[in-house]
């Protein structure tokens, strides 16, 4: 069975009667497993006054999602059992009673793990229109979205990169790390990445702008940092924490900046199991700084970041790599892949194809 929906522009879109969504079934203890989620079938909602209906095209996953299920990560109210799993997505407006959104608009925001989502465009939803029609809509969740903004603003606003510096990046083949290479290179720096396989290391050097790469599973990280960063490390952009952070601290230069973006190696560990840094004293000795940051604190800079990276992509000075699974059934698996280190580039799940507009650049 299907039904029609009419938007503000009068365009009619045929909709299914039902759709699927993932809800929280239990809490991680400590690993994220598929049994922590339950796939439900529910009616496709209809927009009320001031609302619009979005057909989800892509969903993003990020390590912080595990924290939404436990304590909210200090960002969101913790999800309750039975709540729709929270997550950002790109979608197509297929029904609207909102004056600011019309059928056919492509939007990015908090859609949740579901095939169709209602929104009122409130600040909580962080909804905005995707205007570009040059690269796939999925880039609004990656290089031209929060992932890319985190790399760009972490390096420009927090690390305050200077031309000629040496930049070291951990988790370099992940979503944020895969954007750091070109950002640093385009700002006139030498950049070395740390990843977990030979395949990922080749990708870093051949396609993602890195000058050199270290395979932490097969090489002594400390020795390789010393060999590849002979003049020391000016900026360390850390996505991993633990032993790799400790190894990098042994090589920081005077007045180095250590940017704490993530610590995926420690997320699943208890307080007693957490790795204790041994080289922390070098931060003081080297007059260095170590700073964490939360990307939404830099929201006023998102526009500038998007414009700059879009210019680099258009000029052929920035590439990107997406790891895309197919179908909403893959959502739990996609999240688990992050903790396994199985993803190469930004991890996404393609949920559906657009019905009112053609997606650019997607063969």
Structure notes:
With 363 residues, the chain is of the alpha/beta class. The chain has two domains: 2-142 and 320-350, Quinone Oxidoreductase, Chain A, domain 1 (Alpha-Beta Complex), CATH 3.90.180; 146-299, NAD(P)-binding Rossmann-like Domain (Rossmann fold), CATH 3.40.50. The protein contains nine helices and 17 strands. The chain has helices at 65-68, 146-158, 177-186, 198-207, 221-228, 242-249, 281-285, 302-314, 331-340, and strands at residues 2-6, 12-16, 18-24, 37-43, 52-60, 88-96, 106-110, 116-119, 128-129, 166-169, 190-195, 212-215, 233-238, 252-260, 289-292, 322-326, 346-350. Strands 5, 6, 7, 8, 9, 16 and 17 form a seven-stranded mixed beta sheet that branches. Strand 11, helix 4 and strand 12 form a beta-alpha-beta unit. The longest helix has 13 residues, at 146-158. It is globular and about 65 Å long. The two termini are 30 Å apart. The model has no long low-confidence stretch (mean pLDDT 92).
What is the gist of this entry?
The chain has 363 residues and is of the alpha/beta class. It has nine helices and 17 strands.
